[in-house]
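Bench notes, afternoon.
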Amino acid sequence: QELRPKSLDIKQEELGDMVEKEMASTSEAIEDAVRRIEEMMSQARNESSGVKLEVNERILNSCTDLMKAIRLLVTTSTNLQKEIVESGRGAATTQEFYAKNSRWTEGLISASKAVGWGATQLVESADRVVLHTGKYEELIVCSHEIAASTAQLVAASKVKAEKSSRNLARLQECSRNVNEMAANVVASTKSGQEQIEEKDTMDFSGMSLIKLKKEEMETQVKVLELEKRLEGERVRLGELRKQHYALAGGCEDAPEDGEARPAPAPRRGILKKPPIAQKP
């Protein structure tokens, strides 16, 4: 008992209530996200037009489809949890079942929180993009996070579910649908970004030769600075992932499902081209 990780500051008998509260909280977060997207859609139609309106509508529509897919996923996951508890608790109460399987319950709570948090972050990023105060890349990252959180929720539910369970099959189908909708958000975001950038095409026709040369040199400097910054950020990302796995207990124990860990970013300059042989 002393060696068990104290990941939650609650009593075991409260775990059952915690699961229900977290799933209800996740459902509320998703419903709120759907309402906010509808409000953003109405605001975009009033305040934008042309290409920007088209881009905003396409992005928000894909976000709405993703929220609907997540809502169905959470509902199916809740049904599967009830099935697992009913088939596994025997003469025990629901609270006793959750307490007996506390590690599994804590994983379920963590996964549910991650899904709700991802949905909230996606809506906030979409809001900033529509208001032109955010970055398109934020939406892409949020979509990837939602796909990862969904996989976590399915894995947590799958641990104790019967292989022949219909609810498990439905949950896996919902997970695939969420991944597909998340990919649509990424695709609509990238195409929208390209459309906006094409609209704001750079025009250098009025520049003199000296001005063009100066702009060219300044742009080369920026490219070198960005390449150096990109390399540094890749190294930082690798270290963050190492720390994440260390905290999650994933550094010492390899994942059972065989999921590959992210490889560290390759350092530039390690592989050098062999020297060309000199002619006699």
